[in-house]
């Protein structure tokens, strides 16, 4: 089983792209079909909810509810593990710290430059490679 924290930007991108073969779409599909078990916290769920509801993304309410329900039903709750790393955006810290809560978990993000350079932080394309190697 692959465990991963999914950054909000991956979910948003999966919903707004017109390309079903985009890496973000394929990673999100892997979460939805159970090939990736999401690791989440209450803070992350709050951010998912707030960001997915932004008018500029125009994501239908039923898809937002469905996405959140899938993460809650199929994922595991993770507690933050304090990190001494520096983050350009303090809102990103929770994603990294929750990823640290589960051994061998990844953090999938479209913004690797916002996180420490560690093997657990991967792009959607890199996560697809990890999935293929399993």
Give an account of the 3D structure.
It is built from 6 helices and 5 strands. The chain has 134 residues and is an alpha/beta fold. Helix 1 crosses helix 2 (23-32) and helix 2 packs across helix 6. It is globular and about 40 Å long. It starts with a strand and ends with a helix. The mean pLDDT is 95.
What general form does the structure show?
globular
Largest sheet: 5 strands, parallel
Q: H/E order of the elements?
A: EHHEHHEHEEH
The count of strands amounts to: 5
Order of strands in the sheet with the most strands?
3-2-1-4-5
In terms of DSSP E residues, the strand content is 5-15%
Distance between the termini: 9 Å
Mean pLDDT: 95
From the alpha-carbon coordinates, what is the Rg to the nearest angstrom? Answer: 14 Å
Give the oligomer, counting copies of the same chain as homo and different chains as hetero. Answer: single chain
Tally the helices.
6
* Secondary-structure content class: alpha/beta
- Low-pLDDT stretches are none
Helical residues, percent = 40-55%
């Amino acid at each position: 089983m692959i465990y991963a924290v999914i950054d909000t930007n991956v979910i948003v991108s999966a919903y707004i792209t017109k390309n079903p073969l985009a890496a973000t779409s394929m990673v999100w599909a892997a979460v939805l079909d159970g090939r990736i078990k999401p690791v989440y916290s209450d803070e992350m769920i709050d951010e998912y909810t707030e960001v997915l509801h932004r008018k500029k993304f125009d994501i239908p309410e039923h898809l937002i509810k469905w996405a959140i329900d899938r993460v809650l039903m199929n994922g595991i709750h993770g507690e933050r593990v304090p990190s001494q790393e520096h983050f350009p955006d303090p809102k990103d810290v929770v994603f990294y710290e929750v990823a640290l809560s589960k051994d061998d978990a990844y953090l999938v993000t479209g913004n690797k430059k916002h996180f420490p350079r560690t093997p657990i932080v991967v792009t959607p394309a890199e996560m697809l490679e990890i999935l293929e190697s399993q």
